[in-house]
User: What shape does this take?
Amino acid sequence: MTEAERILLELLNLERLEVDLFRGVGSGGETPTRIFGGQVIAQALSAAYRTVESRSCHSLHAYFIRPGDPVKPVIYQVDRARDGGSFTTRRVVAIQHGKQILNMSASFHIQDDGWEHQHPIPDVKGPEAHPLRNTLQQQYLSRVPEKIQSELMRERPIEVREVDHQDLFHPAKTDDRNSIWFRMNAADQAEPVTQHLLLAYASDMSLLGSGLRPHGLSWFTGEVNAASLDHALWFHAPVQFQNWHLYAMDSPWTGQGRSFNRGSIYAQDGTLVASVAQEGLMRRAKPKG
Assistant: This one.
């Protein structure tokens, strides 16, 4: 297990303060300046799971309200909204500095039977055909300030291979469809709950970038102010995140300073394991000076 993988697993292991009150670490995720959205979602889901027995999450819906401060811990307050015969509902509020930074509803379901169908996995080359994220980012080291270089090359817990990489500084206008392969080796032998938490964390990766692609934008061009506004995730099948998964994303609409993005997460054998939807802020950045 790498140090980055160990840190992520520790981030998802919340401290119980009271029956329905938990505390999570803010630092250590994907971004250093504010808490990565996927981290807050995964920790909120972890808090909810700690109040549920013998049921699996099938959906969650979250709103990002304020940026999270990575220097401070996050308090998660769980409301046991409903314990029904087949479904259990939880509401989780994430709090920092006495204010909400996220609120989330999550629903849990018993094992059930029904009719089945799914869309097929997109026809893309497998993960071995694409370079590692760190390999791609090495080409940008000479174009970023020295203080950013170490952050750009910092070891991450989740291995990512981009299917259609765009130059970070000079992205071409292209199709909104955006796919990555990802996995985390340390998920091997992890419990089903931990598998859900890891996928929830990873589901916020690269999704917002789909809306930037048709406009030739990236986080490094200095033209856009972007942030996640909400996030919805549906689990369809058991997750084994130590194996490769394809995250196929698109952005059918941008406008009015917002971007709508969707994602489908497939196991490498073609099983659709989860679906994602997110709206993000996509506002023109104010000129500097």
Q: What stands out?
A: The mean pLDDT is 94. Residues 266 and 272 are 4 Å apart (CA to CA). The two ends are 46 Å apart (CA to CA). DSSP finds five helices and 13 strands in the chain.
